[in-house]
TrEMBL record:
Protein name as it appears in the record: Uncharacterized protein
Lineage: Bacteria, Candidatus Woeseibacteriota
Length: 148
């Protein structure tokens, strides 16, 4: 096992079994779960934003940060009570790892994602991302509002 380049060698079902159990996930497994969650957030951005915030109008770095901020908002909204967007995120994760949605607790998914988000936000962001925070915040509000 290793990075996503070796995804074909990864036993996604084994990762899924670990995800639904109390067994600790290793760094690569956490990366896979976080990667699936960020892909969900990216797809959500594509489906909900107008062309002002579309991927083509921002750099890859800004778009990546926007995606993580959307995921963070989904996780934060879950803390206030389960939301349809969090349920959709959970379903996407479950499909990727070949597990039943009812077998994965919301709390377990929240915990794995929260720890990954904490690690992400412990790093410095670039000047380009800082300059685009207004755009990112606007996009996040459009994509992952409390009413979504």
């Amino acid at each position: 096992m290793g990075t996503l380049e070796h995804e074909a060698q990864v036993d996604f079902e084994a990762v899924g079994r670990k995800l639904i159990s109390a067994e600790a996930l290793n760094k690569d497994e956490i990366f896979l779960v976080f990667g699936r969650a960020t892909n969900f957030a990216s797809d959500l951005i594509d489906s909900k934003l107008d062309q002002t915030h579309a991927a083509s109008s921002v750099s890859v770095e800004v778009r990546s940060h926007m995606t993580v901020i959307v995921l963070d908002r989904l996780v934060s909204l879950y803390q206030g009570g389960s939301t349809p967007l969090f349920a959709n995120l959970k379903e996407a994760v479950c499909q990727t790892f070949s597990i039943k949605s009812e077998d994965l607790s919301d709390e377990r998914l929240h915990s794995v994602l929260s720890s990954s988000l904490d690690e992400y936000f412990s790093k410095d962001i670039s000047e380009e991302v800082k300059k685009n925070m207004g755009l990112i915040r606007g996009a996040v509000d459009q994509v992952a509002s409390k009413d979504a």
